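Subject: mismatched residue count in predicted assembly?

I count 573 residues in my input, but I want to confirm that the predicted structure covers every chain. Input:
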Amino acid sequence: MSILVWIEQRDGKIRSVSREALGVAARLAGSLGGPVVGVCAATADPGLAAMGDAGAERALLATQPGFEHYDASGYAAVVVAAAEAVSPKAILFPASAMGKDLAPRVAARLGVGLASDCTAIDVEGGRLVATRPVYAGKANLKLSFTGSPAIASLRPKVFPAGAGAGKTCTVEALSVDAAPARARVLRVESSAAGKIDLTESEVIVSGGRGLKAPEHFKLIEDLAEALGATVGASRAVVDAGWRPHSEQVGQTGKTVSPKLYVAVGISGAIQHLAGMSSSRCIVAINKDPDAPIFKVADYGIVGDLFEVVPALAEEVRKLNATV
Amino acid sequence: MLQVVCIKQVADTETRVKIAADGKQLDPAGVTWILNPYDEYAVEEALRTREKAGAGEVVALILGGPGVTTTVRNALAMGVDRAIHLTHEGPAPDALQIARALATELKGMAPQIVWFGRQAVDDDAAQVGPMTAELLGFPCVTAVAKFELNGEKATVEREIEGGREVIEVDLPAAFAADKGLNEPRYASLKGIMAAKKKPIEARPAAPGEPSLEIVALELPPARSAGRIVGEGPSAAAELVRVLREEAKAI
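Triage response: the counts match. Full output below for your records.
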């Protein structure tokens, strides 16, 4: 028995979300029994031995020339082969863009249930219980599994990354006979260099209709830069075409849980609140003291955002200069 | 070319969630039911693909109780040719059960393209599309933000962290539509009238045994309102101080 963890690599580098999943696996192995085994698909070893620090005792590596980019069916074949090799009680994936796509395929191939995008997973009374937000966070659904292995994907930035486990991770080759892919990634086009995805951001500054015009988003970008934050947007401004859909926070957009969420000129429609209410600290800047956003905010400033936001960016820059 | 769009009826995004007495599902009282917003992008893309080809059929496939007919009519009013309703009573099936029922139906239809929304805005699971494709043995791309058909292949784009994957897919294939793929049309009056006469075939769904068990549906802990640090730009310095010293957020 073991717990299998999908180790995601991109461009030959292991992504940090994999350490989060390994950390969870190491915790669950305490009650369910171990060991924690990683599985990875790549063109060469991305440095799997280092995953011992995050809790892995073994890592199974399938290498193939076509594994340079994400190959949904090939990667699924790798995870299924690993599951056959180690008979896991559970298989964990990061709920990244790749993990969200891959986990359902593996679940369908194995004919077992999947709890996707979980924010908690624990052993209760001997069985695994997964908690996942539904209705974009308006409610939490707790699920258990009727078959084995249990499969879960874990929301990024919710679980601490596994570290200091002090295990020695042995890397073993896994041979897989993957059929030629019928969906092939031709290339990956990166957006702004170094841009972090909203779902993986520690700090988010979001703008809404209060900004009055798309060009005023430079105020948001400026504050975001001072805070080292990622820019988000309300549905209203995405629907108006001011910002791309990839920046939308809330139902029909992204559900986020950063350390700090700053809502600027966002009144707080229920769809928006659903998507950001699990943030650790919420700040609202709005001219309307009765805006619903203040009901969920830890701190607020009532005022004209065109005056408040530049002043705030300036104060943050002053702080940055002293620390 | 046959395209099938798998659609779902969901609670409107304005819904304030109340938990039913059993503690396991949404209290349906007072809920407005709509076509899942992501499925609208799927329907729209199927219609555009048919229009560009100048021929072909678009069929909507839905699983649910008798109450889903209005949602089916909405899809038909947008321009879908006909619909198949896999009827299911009782507790909502899990994603794998739905995928099994859809795949069973789709196998007999031999579609070139099967469309889904990237996720339903109720359970947010994002599982049924890729699971159904897997059971059919179809390649599948989820969260499709751009779609272009070139004969027996499609070139699509999918948003990932910090960029987009450009993917070439051999048909037959399944795609899950993301917001931003297109701007869904509104049903015209003519479309609404025509929808009333379009056929909806109904037969019982074959979902098989559940693979997940609902333990509980709970409301998240309510956030209490915090405090207004001040008014206007002069409050900025105080806000930075509390964020650093109290909240330790910066």
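Chain B is about 25% helix and 30% strand. Marking this ticket as 'not a bug'.
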